[in-house]
Amino acid sequence: MSVLQRKAQVGKQEHQARAMTVPKALRVGLARIADDVFEMALAVIGVTQERCSGEELAEKVEENALLVLLDGVRGVTGGVVLGSGLVGALVQQQTTGQVSATPTEDRRLTETDAALCAPMLDALFAHAHDLLETPPEKNLLAPYKFGARAENARLFCLALDEPDYHILRLTIDVASGAFQSTIMLILPLPTAKAEMVRDRSDAEPPVAPATLGAAVMGMQAELSAVLCRVRLSLSSMSALQPGDTLSIPADAFDCVELVSIEGRVVGSGGVGQIEGQRALMLETEGKRPAETARTPDVEEPAEEASDYTNLDLPELELAPSEALAEVPDAGGLMDLPDLPDLPDLPDLDDIGGEPLGDLPDLPDLPDLPDLDGDLPDLGDLPKLNIA
């Protein structure tokens, strides 16, 4: 090797040392995004790379981690596996403003956790992609965006259907040495068809700082509608067979409770349908029909005929014999004069100045004749006109 070749080789090595590689872009990008967007300390202390086929992904995915699918350019799908400790730190920072010194206990990660981690992933890929210089590295670390959370490792691996992937495993130092966690990026190898190079002139605007309100409004809440609660003994439940029915209260559809996934009642209302769709009409705040309508030992009054209004009934026509006479208008009667004052009337015991005394007894009535035999024929009596 000549002197010029040796000098060129040294210059090439110095340029490669100064060049921005994919691991270096991820290291710089994660630290800056964590500080600018979340105001927390995250540092990449180790990076390993390997190439893996799509069939071998299932062996490398942790089941208790947060599995996130990424949307890439032209329909390309990537994946991210976030350690549970890093997920807990991001949630704590955005909810309480500080990170605990110890990692959170393993728990079932939910859609809420994924929504709180989405701003960090979007900002990391956008910032790290802009730091790269060569087209091959830009094609590999394309500006992916958060897509969806996978329920388990089987569904996660089924969604990644490319033949080969480039895996980058990052070891993360959380909160300046509090604990460590991991991020595993599963990126499909770029092909000639899916060219993903972007000019700096086409770079997307910087990602706005993540806020708790935006993340909460974007998450999904699972609510259950409870018609009623039925108490059964264990023997009755064991005796239930297919086809058996359970009776529910008559007002169950008017007193539906909305229950969260933790079992807490968050609202109430009535269930029905609108244009063929099931619908729930929520009650206003302060009205709890489920508490008032189901009060035990209270009998509701029976409905009366006057409760049924707006009934379309036919008009009844009375016969002439049953028709009521018309009452003249009281306003059309002439005014009658006032009656004159009557003089004082004398007492009955003193008429004409003499007392009446005792009245004689009335004679006895004669006995009725004894009618023997049948009553006399009265003949044809005229019919009474009752019309």
Give an account of the 3D structure.
- The chain has 9 helices and 12 strands.
- It is α+β, with helices and mostly antiparallel strands.
- Among the domains are: 8-218, CheC-like (Chemotaxis protein chec), CATH 3.40.1550; 221-230 and 250-291, no CATH class.
- The strands form 3 sheets. Strands 1-5-6-3-2-4 form a 6-stranded antiparallel beta sheet, sandwiched between helices. The protein has a 4-stranded antiparallel beta sheet with strand order 7-8-9-10, with no helix packed on it. A two-stranded antiparallel ribbon has the order 11-12.
- β2 (66-71) and β3 (77-82) form a beta hairpin.
- The longest helix is centred in the N-terminal third of the chain and has 21 residues, at 111-131.
Keywords:
387 residues; alpha+beta; Chemotaxis protein chec; 6-stranded antiparallel sheet; 20% strand; elongated
